[in-house]
Amino acid sequence: MIKNLLNLFFPEVCKACSNHLSDNELQICTNCRHNLPLTDFHDDKENAVHKILYGRVKLEHATALLHFSKKGIVQQLMHNLKYRGHQDIGELLGDWLGNDLKQLDSYSNIDVVIPVPLHKAKLKSRGFNQVDKFGIALANALNAEYNPLVLVKTTNTKTQVFKDRLKRNANQSTNFKIVNGTSLENKHILIVDDIITTGATIEDCANTLLQINGITLSLATMSITD
User: Fold this and answer.
1) Long-range contacts of range 101-108, CB-CB < 8 Å, 24 or more positions apart?
2) What CATH number does the domain containing 176 carry?
3) How far apart are the C-alpha atoms of 98 and 134, rounded to whole Å?
């Protein structure tokens, strides 16, 4: 009764299209769920995520859940997640992707899930890392540890989603450092992020993590730009 009363005055809306949700819908309406642009990359070694990073980073496996396009429903989801604090979107997408990955042998030996970190100034301003709920959900699905502390961002860079590769790489030197990396020696690490565009940030993270002895790396993101 209380929930119905709250919905009367503060109706919950779809985080993708802003239409009112019905009682049996969570975060995203049924219509938007059916229209989410899923990639189906997970068991394809030649997928677009691999191709972006080919020759730059050695990844065991790489995938993204959704295609991201300007003014599309995925952009609206990412905006609500990052700038309106709807962290439940990250958890929803993490549960979705985790359910897919746990059925694949290729992701069965992940030991640790590590998010791409925010600089401490941006984390203080935003109040949360938009990747945390996504990464925790993936770690739970894969029976892996979630460790948001081992990789630290040392440079406070601006959002670079729609910059071209040359401009991004010009801004991208070693922007990360490792804390207590010996705890991850010989582990299979899954790096997680919200979106991959040119791959410059992932490349920087990966090369930093590869300073740890004996590790192997895989990657999973919520989305990939078209």
Assistant:
1) 101/42, 101/63, 101/138, 101/141, 101/142, 101/220, 102/141, 102/142, 104/42, 104/43, 106/43, 106/60, 106/61, 107/42, 107/61, 107/142, 107/190, 107/218, 108/142
2) 3.40.50.2020
3) 9
**Cβ-based neighbour number of residue 44 at 10 Å:** 14
Residues 5, 102, single domain; the answer is: no
Residue 110 · residue 78 · CB < 8 Å: no
End-to-end CA distance of the chain: 44
Do 181 and 130 reside in the same domain of the chain?
yes
Average pLDDT for runs of 10 along the chain of length 226: 52 88 88 95 92 94 96 94 94 97 95 96 93 98 97 78 49 77 96 96 95 96 95
CA distance 17 to 111: 36
Query: By residue range, what is the domain housing residue 169?
Result: 36-225
Radius of gyration of the chain (CA): 18
Residue 27 and residue 66 in one domain: no
Instruction: Examine the domain organization and report whether 48 and 128 are in the same domain.
Output: yes
